[in-house]
Design goal:
This protein is of the alpha/beta class. It has a single domain, classed as HUPs (Rossmann fold, 3-Layer(aba) Sandwich), CATH 3.40.50.620. It contains eight helices and ten strands.
Length: 238
């Protein structure tokens, strides 16, 4: 019987996954797990401490925690104020990277798709911290990728709309085939240009769905936010 190769016995490098609570980061977790190149040990999320919500996506912290539990991974929260300058953000992230290195983590996995300036920003700032970014979805055709996500069982709701790029009526809708069909041709199917943001509540990256209930639509700071509530909290308030 042949002995296992040294390569097979070598431990995988550890990585954290940058978690926005949306479909792209959720799908990048699924793809990275399938690829099997890294041992993913935590989800890394910036949290707006003014509102106790995921930065930009405006998802409640309790729902974020539900995602982490369903993904079977601990959550590393990076608290930031609102508004938050680049200097404050980078200082907070540098502190998180120090924690990562102390835990033997040298890679951060991102769900970025094609914005070269964002990739360059991540690469340059992580290099300062002796960390390496990984982009498992990079360069994928976003029309095909969006449909691959749906076919693979990912389910999500739209939690944030930039009304300068997309009509406010899309806020709160399910990210599904009808949503994609209704999008104007000027809007990226994955919202990579910031047209919309989502909350992933089911998919192959989760052990069970995260049950949510639609809340109010709020206009704030030039954006339109669709609140989501945990089902238990929503029923208690009815």
């Amino acid at each position: 019987m042949a002995e296992p190769s040294r390569e097979a016995n070598r431990p995988k490098p550890k990585a954290w996954l940058a978690w926005s609570s949306g479909k792209d980061s959720a799908w990048s977790l699924h793809v990275a797990r399938q690829d099997g190149d890294f041992e993913i040990t935590a989800l890394l999320t910036t949290v707006n401490r003014t509102h106790n919500r995921v930065a930009m996506h405006a998802v409640r912290e309790s729902l974020l925690e539900g995602q982490a539990a369903a993904a079977g991974l601990p959550l590393v929260e990076v608290p930031i104020p609102s508004p938050c300058s680049n200097e404050v953000y980078e200082h907070a992230m540098a502190a998180a990277m120090s924690q990562a290195r102390a835990e033997g983590v040298a890679h951060i996995i991102f769900g970025d798709l094609f914005l070269k300036e964002i990739r360059k920003y991540r690469e340059e700032n992580l290099a300062k911290c002796n960390m390496t970014p990984v982009f498992p979805l990079w360069g994928r055709d976003t029309q095909l990728l969006a449909r691959e996500m749906l076919a693979g069982g990912l389910r999500a709701y739209v939690t944030c709309i930039d009304p300068r790029k997309l009509d406010t009526s899309f806020a709160g809708r399910a990210f599904d085939s009808k949503f994609l069909a209704d999008l104007p041709v000027s809007v990226d199917p994955c919202g990579e240009n910031g047209e919309f943001h989502t909350f992933a509540w089911a998919g192959p990256m989760f052990s069970a769905p995260i049950s949510v209930h639609s809340g109010e639509i709020v206009h704030r700071d030039g954006f339109v936010f669709a609140d989501l509530l945990p089902v238990t909290a929503a029923l208690a308030s009815d």
